[in-house]
């Protein structure tokens, strides 16, 4: 089965800045592909090239097997997109907004009810979009992206600005999407937790380069496990663990000590626990676990000292 | 892979553009600008001391329209129509759709031209209505002579055609820049120079003064202005469509 999205050495340069650097990514059919990276890593530029919105400086991009540069319209027929800016007309209702895109795509009217049903927005569809909450706009954006049942959905930060309930709804919805519609989802985000719970595959972009790609389950399994720990003195605990040969990373909720290849996780965890207690460091929690996405991400995508600014037109 | 959606019907972008105007400020402007001229004509008639010919009232309305209200309305209208996409940042969505981009921009241009044509007709008929109403209130001021619809409609039609170059320039700038500022600066600047250089012979070559030249008595003036406004207007509009559909929106 051909890949839903495939790029080969996809490159984009803005004057002197290399925004996307020879990215070769493969999004398998019916995958939920988490496209990760810091702000300014080149995610949106890559997505814009996939959608034919900007031209690559080099390389190629195929969507549904169609070369975007050679046949933009053919490639666009394969994809529906939810972009960061929704682009809805506030003076019109949700249904009217969908109907504009439906008309442009030459689809039957019944398509509107179908997609509204999928995103559970039928009862709000007659309200003006200017009265919608952000979560409702996101859902309406998803509905619009699904008009005509395109085989590929490109979603740029779909959980941006949503409240926790909205994020949970979106997560549930995205996870079910391939099974429900048969679509492949390319999901751009910088929320690692969301991607970890939603994606089947990931690609990590760092400073314009694709530094890691693969099936999430397999990536986690292939990497050595780690010990997650929470103590009352992270600085001393880090020094102690490093002195014992562990590679230590600070995470949002504590420390992570990487095991050496072949090392037994339970034995190493017990040994580190004993050492911490002997050093009079209080241990609140400790345990071995398989690699978290955050750990993988931090390892392959170290923070850059300066985040490159997005190029802006003269009168943005 | 699922089946691809059907191709977009040829006129779909045009109907879509027309529907976007629903409840929009552009429509409010399209009604308000001609109405202001009519209100002005209404009170001018009521203030009169003696009956004046229809010809004078209609030339007054055409003068205000061509000289000032048309360039200012085109400035505001093109900015509002463009801002319908710039405001919610819908260009990315529109430009990612599987249809030729020039058709999106052409539909916008046709919509703007249709609105300006309707506004021109509205100035003609609202002015006629306002003068008629004022004369009904003060019958002694009933305009003399005959209201020659075909002649006045012809004049407003020529004003509209001569304005094509100005409309094309304003629309190009308004669609090109997301900010209102460049479009307003061009429009206000153009109108300003058109007003201060009213009597200049070179005015006939100035896009914002071409519509006013339809009121000129010398044949060469209105013929030149009409030819240039219409001809160059078509060329500039075509160039705008090519440029806008090819450029990248970052």
Can you put this structure into words, describing what you see?
The complex is a heterodimer of chains A (316) and B (250). Chain A is α/β, with parallel strands linked by helices. Chain A has 11 helices and 15 strands. A 6-stranded mixed sheet of chain A has the order 7-8-9-4-10-11, with helices on both faces. In chain A, strands 1, 2, 3, 5 and 6 form a 5-stranded antiparallel sheet that branches. In chain A, α4 (110-118) crosses α5 (134-145). The radius of gyration of chain A is 22 Å and the shape is elongated. Chain B is mainly alpha-helical and 250 residues long. Chain B has one domain. Helices cover 72% and strands 0% of the residues of chain B. Chain B is built from 9 helices and no strands. Classes of the chains: A alpha/beta (316), B mainly alpha (250).
In short:
The complex is a heterodimer of chains A (316) and B (250). Chain A is α/β, with parallel strands linked by helices.
Sheet with the most strands of chain A?
Answer: 6 strands, mixed
Strand order of the largest sheet of chain A: 7-8-9-4-10-11
How many DSSP E strands of chain A? 15
- Count of beta strands of chain B: 0
Name its key features:
heterodimer; A: 316 residues; alpha/beta; Rossmann fold; Alpha-Beta Plaits; five-stranded antiparallel sheet; 35% helix; elongated; B: 250 residues; mainly alpha
């Amino acid at each position: 089965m051909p890949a839903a999205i495939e790029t080969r050495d996809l490159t984009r340069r803005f004057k002197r800045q290399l925004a996307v650097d020879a990215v070769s990514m493969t999004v398998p059919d019916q995958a939920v592909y988490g496209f990760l990276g810091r702000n300014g890593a080149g995610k949106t530029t890559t997505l814009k090239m996939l959608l034919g919105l900007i031209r690559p400086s080099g390389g190629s991009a195929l969507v549904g097997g169609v070369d975007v540069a050679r046949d933009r319209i053919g490639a666009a027929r394969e994809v529906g997109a939810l972009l960061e800016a929704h682009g809805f007309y506030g003076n019109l209702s949700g249904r009217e907004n969908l109907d504009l895109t439906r008309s442009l795509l030459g689809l039957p009217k019944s398509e509107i009810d179908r997609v509204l049903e999928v995103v559970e927005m039928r009862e709000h569809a007659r309200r003006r979009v200017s009265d919608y909450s952000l979560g409702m706009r996101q859902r309406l954006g998803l509905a619009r992206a699904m008009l005509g049942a395109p085989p590929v959905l490109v979603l740029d930060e779909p959980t941006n600005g949503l409240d926790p309930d909205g994020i949970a709804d979106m997560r549930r919805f995205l996870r079910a999407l391939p099974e429900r519609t048969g679509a492949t989802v390319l999901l751009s985000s910088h929320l690692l937790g969301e991607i970890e719970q939603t994606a089947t595959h990931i690609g990590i972009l760092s400073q314009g380069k694709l530094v890691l790609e693969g099936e999430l389950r397999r990536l986690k399994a292939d990497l050595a496990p780690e010990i997650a720990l929470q103590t009352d003195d992270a600085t001393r605990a880090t020094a102690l663990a490093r002195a014992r040969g562990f590679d230590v990373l600070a995470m949002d909720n504590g420390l992570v000590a990487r095991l050496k290849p072949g090392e037994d996780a339970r034995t190493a965890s017990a040994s580190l626990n004993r050492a911490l207690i002997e050093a009079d460091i209080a241990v609140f929690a400790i345990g071995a676990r398989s690699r978290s996405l955050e750990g993988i991400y931090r390892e392959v995508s170290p923070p850059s000292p300066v985040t490159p600014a997005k190029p802006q037109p003269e009168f943005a | 892979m699922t089946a691809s959606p059907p191709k977009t019907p040829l006129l779909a972008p045009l109907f879509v553009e027309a529907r976007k105007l629903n409840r929009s400020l552009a429509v409010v402007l399209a009604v308000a600008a001609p109405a202001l001229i009519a209100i002005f004509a209404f009170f001018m008639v009521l203030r009169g001391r003696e009956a004046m010919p229809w010809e004078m009232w209609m030339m007054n309305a055409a003068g205000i329209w061509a000289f000032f209200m048309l360039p200012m309305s085109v400035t505001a209208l093109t900015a509002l129509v463009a801002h319908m996409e710039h405001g919610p940042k819908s260009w990315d969505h529109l430009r990612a759709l599987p249809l030729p981009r020039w058709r999106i921009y052409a539909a916008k241009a046709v919509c703007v031209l249709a609105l300006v044509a309707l506004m021109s007709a509205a100035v003609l008929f609202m002015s006629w209505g306002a003068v008629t109403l004022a004369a009904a209130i003060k019958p002694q001021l009933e305009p003399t002579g005959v209201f020659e619809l075909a002649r006045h409609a012809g004049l407003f039609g020529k004003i509209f055609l001569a304005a094509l170059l100005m409309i094309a320039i304003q629309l190009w700038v308004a669609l090109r820049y997301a900010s209102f500022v460049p479009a307003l600066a061009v429009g206000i600047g153009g109108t300003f120079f058109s007003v201060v250089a009213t009597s200049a012979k070179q005015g006939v070559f100035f896009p914002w003064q071409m519509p006013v030249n339809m009121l000129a008595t010398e044949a060469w003036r209105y013929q030149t202005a009409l030819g240039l406004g219409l001809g160059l207007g078509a060329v500039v509009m075509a160039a705008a469509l090519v440029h806008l559909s090819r450029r990248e929106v970052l």
